[in-house]
Write a structure and sequence with these properties.
Strand content of chain B: under 5%
Number of helices of chain B: 4
Structural class of chain B: mainly alpha
Number of strands of chain A: 1
Oligomer: heterodimer
Helix content of chain A: over 70%
Shape of chain B: rod-shaped
Number of strands of chain B: 1
């Protein structure tokens, strides 16, 4: 192992020890009731009628753990609340990282296709918008045709409209999954590209060679996720990212050109 | 004019050494030698990734196992309620999940990403992007 690897492992070890302590305190503080203590809040709760029961207070939780670990309870509460709110970000980062690992060649190809100046960027975005419009238009027309077929040709048949609609919805869901996979590859490349663009700024340019590509991509994904949370701008940013990601995938797939990295 | 033994590009001081070295008969390296050397060069050491994956996964898996052992009924009840809500026309529902469970699940995912990368990078003969 190189020195950098050792540092990473030691850093992870420190993080793992800290996380283990927090997970232990969380498990002990919210374990099922014993004696006269207030009831613990369920770990997972979904109900249409009943309201979420109140959880134990920090003081109640501190009573359930040993002395030195009592100090961690407020921190554990904070991390627990933050992690619940950050589930979307964690999912985005996990999907980006797994795409970078499992579809590395495809992401690299899309990344290469999106390189270039503002003209190239505009072309990629335009290609994405065109493809998006094409997909929406095609899907809408396909549903119109299919619904017409179901309500006219399949009327009063054993294979009724209900079954046909289920088949149609299932087929549509499968097509959506394939589109999402392509979008995932494009999103990973877009995040990488955004991170790269930030590293080319004067303030960050000295870190260009030191930061590995996956970290650059994850930083880009984090920035995009934060952008999506802004009320009005978020929807526009989401649409732009989806269009750019699709455009990059299409550019990589259709345009065969040599790009110098 | 080209001198014998290709000496035209050598400094005078280098010629004696060149004569000595060129007197050694050429020897073919053993079969597989080149492949072995190239494998050593190309091979990436991924032991640290396995370590990181284990460090992240083990506490999280232990936590999740304890959660299921202690509060498995909560998970089952929530799942039943979700299925019930999907088949009814209810407009309101409340949802809650313990944040540490979310964190533990995410950490298991991150550990799996590290493990997958270690598996792929450890496979010989694969082209990789090195930055």
């Amino acid at each position: 192992m190189t020195r950098r690897d050792v540092v990473i492992v030691l850093g992870t070890l420190a993080v793992a020890v800290g996380l283990s302590a927090i997970l232990f305190v969380g498990a002990a503080a919210t374990s099922p009731d014993s004696g006269p203590e207030p009831a613990a809040r369920p770990r997972v709760f979904f109900d249409q009628r009943a309201a979420l029961p109140p959880g134990r207070t920090v003081v109640d939780a501190q009573r359930r753990v040993a002395g030195p670990l009592q100090a961690i309870v407020p921190l554990q509460r904070g991390i627990s609340d933050t992690a619940r709110d950050a589930a979307g970000l964690l999912l985005t980062l996990l999907l980006t990282a797994s795409t970078l690992v499992l579809a590395n060649d495809q992401v690299v190809a899309v990344y290469r296709a999106s390189l270039g100046g503002w003209r190239s960027q505009a072309r990629v975005l335009a290609a994405g918008l065109v493809v998006l419009g094409l997909a929406v238009s095609t899907a809408a027309l396909a549903w119109v045709v299919y619904l017409n077929f179901v309500t006219s040709a399949l009327r009063d048949t054993p294979f009724g409209p209900g079954t046909a609609l289920q088949v149609g919805l299932t087929a549509f869901a499968v097509m959506c999954v394939f589109a999402l996979l392509a979008l995932l590859v494009g999103f990973a490349a877009t995040s990488w590209r955004l991170g790269d663009a930030l590293l080319h700024t004067r303030a960050l340019s000295r870190f260009q060679t030191q930061i590995p590509a996956p970290v650059v991509a994850l930083a880009g994904a984090t920035i995009l996720f934060v952008l999506w949370q802004i009320p009005a701008l978020g929807a526009i940013a989401l649409a732009a990212v989806v269009a750019y990601a699709l455009g990059a995938v299409v550019t990589a797939r259709l345009i065969k050109e040599e790009v110098t990295v | 004019m080209t001198e014998p033994f290709g000496l035209s590009d050598l400094e005078p001081d280098e010629r004696d050494l060149h004569f000595v070295l060129s007197a050694i008969p050429p020897q073919a390296p053993p079969v597989g030698f080149r492949d072995a050397v190239m494998r050593r060069i190309v091979e990436r050491r991924v032991g640290w990734e396995w370590l990181v994956a284990a460090l992240l996964a083990l506490p999280s898996l232990a936590f999740l196992a304890r959660q299921i052992a202690e509060s498995g009924a909560d998970f089952a009840a929530a799942l039943v309620n979700v299925l019930g809500a999907a088949s009814s026309e209810t407009a309101n529902a409340s949802f809650f999940i313990d944040g540490l469970t979310v964190l533990a699940v995410a950490l298991v995912g991150v550990a799996c990403v590290f493990a997958a990368h270690a598996l792929i990078a450890g496979t010989p003969g694969r082209r990789r992007l090195v930055r």
